[in-house]
Amino acid sequence: MKPDNNKLDVQRFSRYSNAYLIDGTVLIDAGIDPREIAGYDPQLIILTHCHFDHTCAAPEIARMTGARVAIHEEDAKLLDDDYATGSVLFGKRAPEINPDMLLYGGEIFESDNFMLEVIHTPGHTPGGICLYESETRSLFSGDTVFPDGGIGRCDLGGDLSDLIRSIELLTTLNPEVLYPGHLDVTDADVPSQIGLSLANARGLAV
Ligand SMILES: [Zn+2]
Ligand SMILES: [Zn+2]
């Protein structure tokens, strides 16, 4: 089912947070400025969590393209909260987002070229998710883990114990490429980088 080069077609937009367009059809996170996505035609926008810098452009992109918007139901509840969405940090109100689809974890979005699984990874926010494409071993980690042992902050409505459990779950995967919500994409021994994130998160708990 995969093209033989075994590479996922990923276009990255990185002005505010990383947004990734998969195979031209699925946009993971939306960023702040919808003009970044102009000229592309996603059919689905999957938000990794409710924070302003990942979601703000979603309504306008959805209006321009007709794309549906999906988010975990725990974060859907927070979308109109100026504080929980971090909008106040940008001097803004929460953007008005009405999701078309609520996620719970375990959903699979697939096409001929990819099979993206939703993994519920609370901690940075209650309804944070990662997406894993097992064929190409591509992990889209939102703000749960970042390269070089980075972890998402828990002081914007998150929970450190949840984050530790979520990162433990990520260590059971064997990703080849990490596509984080901020910073650069990396393919340098990703399991070790996630192991470092786990150690760092556990270190904060003592
Ligand atoms: Zn965030
Ligand atoms: Zn972020």
From TrEMBL:
Q: Mind telling me which InterPro entries this protein's record contains? A: MBL_Glyoxalase_II, Metallo-B-lactamas, RibonucZ/Hydroxyglut_hydro
Name any cofactors this protein relies on. Answer: Zn(2+)
Matching Pfam families: Lactamase_B (PF00753)
Species this protein is from: Candidatus Methanolliviera hydrocarbonicum
Keywords (A to Z) from UniProt? Hydrolase, Metal-binding, Zinc
| Superkingdom of the source species | Archaea
| GO terms, molecular function | hydrolase activity; metal ion binding
Name the UniProt record assigns to this protein: MBL fold metallo-hydrolase
CDD domains recorded: metallo-hydrolase-like_MBL-fold
- Chain ranges of the Metallo-beta-lactamase domain: 16-182
